[in-house]
UniProtKB/TrEMBL annotation:
Spans traversing the lipid bilayer: 50-70, 77-96, 108-128
Domain of life: Bacteria
Keyword Transmembrane helix: yes
Annotated membrane topology: Multi-pass membrane protein
Protein name: DoxX family protein
Alphabetical keyword list: Cell membrane, Membrane, Transmembrane, Transmembrane helix
Subcellular location: Cell membrane
Keyword Oxidoreductase belongs to the record: no
Species this chain originates from: Rubellimicrobium aerolatum
InterPro entries: DoxX (IPR032808), DoxX-like_oxidoreductase (IPR051907)
Family note: Belongs to the DoxX family.
Length: 135
């Protein structure tokens, strides 16, 4: 029986750091959806009425995205955002057709599962949660 290969030392050092990089980059891109809906940047035709479902989603994207960028309350925020993206897929994209590449829901699915991963993996070492000793 062949021995099970072990991970190189550099990957053990960098894997947690890359978790932080994944969190920061995905949160920044996600937050841009909120800035577009709520702040009008980048410019779009969106101007959802305050209190509407799209406005609430935009606020969650904006505030939740900012919290994830900082790595603050990562697990509960990621849980809420994962649910938001699941709801967004089933409410806005799935009714348009069964194929995510055609119904525009591929990003919602990806965000849903990346955020769900953060619920279990945590924020990584480069985060306010780690700095404050939260697990």
């Amino acid at each position: 029986m062949a021995p099970i290969p072990t991970a190189p030392a550099w990957s053990l050092t960098w894997a947690p750091r890359m978790l932080s990089v994944l969190r920061i980059v995905s949160a920044l891109i996600f937050m841009a959806h909120g800035t577009q809906k709520i702040l009008g940047f980048p410019a779009s035709d969106m101007a959802p009425p305050v209190g509407s479902l799209i406005w609430v989603a935009g606020m969650l994207e904006l505030v939740g995205g900012a919290l994830l960028v900082l790595g603050l309350f990562t697990r509960p925020v990621a849980f809420v955002l994962s649910g938001l993206m699941a709801a967004a897929y089933w409410m806005a994209h799935a009714p348009q057709g069964p194929f995510p590449a055609l119904n525009g829901g591929d990003a919602a699915i990806l965000y849903c599962f990346v955020f769900l991963y953060f619920v279990f993996a945590g924020p990584g070492p480069w985060s306010l949660d780690a700095a404050m000793g939260r697990r």
